[in-house]
Design a protein that fits this description.
It contains 1 helix and 3 strands, in the order E-E-E-H. With 87 residues, the protein is of the alpha+beta class. It has a domain at 18-66. Strands 1-2-3 form a 3-stranded antiparallel β-sheet, covered by helices on one side. The longest helix is centred in the middle third of the chain and has 22 residues, at 45-66.
């Protein structure tokens, strides 16, 4: 039986990495991690696996934040509106 290769997710390293835990999605950014969706942490083996994965990823995020010099608060993201190319 072969084990799945763990997905590498280095918090705040790029604007591309996305990992999932159940239907929960964690999207990497240079200045933030966006978490959306949901996951059921059920009282069974799959629930334990989801909980362990989520715990590990959140631990990596906390460690990355603790290792940085942090501003008091980030400015809101720069959101740009563009014309609809399909209109």
């Amino acid at each position: 039986m072969s084990k799945k290769k763990p997905v590498t997710f280095v918090p705040f390293a790029n604007e591309a990495d996305v990992i999932g835990v159940g239907d929960l999605t964690l999207e990497n950014r240079l200045d933030r991690i966006t978490i959306s969706g949901d996951v059921d942490l059920t009282a069974d083996v799959p629930g334990l696996e989801h909980a362990r994965r989520l715990h590990a990823v959140l631990g990596e995020i906390v460690a990355a934040l603790e290792a940085r010099e942090l501003p008091a608060q980030l400015p809101p993201p720069d959101v740009k509106t563009i014309d609809n190319p399909f209109a």
